[in-house]
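Module 6 notes. Inverse folding takes a fixed backbone as the condition and produces residue identities as the prediction. Think of it as a translation problem where the source language is geometry and the target language is the twenty amino acids. Below is one complete input and output pair. Work through it position by position during the lab.
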């Protein structure tokens, strides 16, 4: 649990991969930990040169994935 929390502070997948690949990683992690289907539609060729923008978009997706679990 601590590892998962620490991973959420800065997504390592974003550092080494494109935004779309990091989002796929988030979807896979969400699906494995919750059992709920989660998928990303996008091409891996789509990339952002600005890491800050990529991080902000990743955080938006992360929040969107987490919101349904807050209701439960």
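Target side of the pair, the amino acids:
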């Amino acid at each position: 649990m601590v590892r998962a929390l620490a991973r959420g502070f800065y997504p390592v997948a974003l550092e080494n991969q494109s935004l779309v690949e990091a989002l796929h990683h988030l979807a896979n992690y969400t699906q494995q930990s919750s059992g709920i289907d989660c998928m990303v539609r996008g091409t891996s060729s789509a990339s952002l040169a600005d890491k800050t923008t990529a991080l902000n978009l990743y955080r938006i997706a992360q929040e969107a994935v987490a919101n349904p679990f807050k209701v439960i």
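Reference fact for the lab report: DSSP finds four helices and no strands in the chain.
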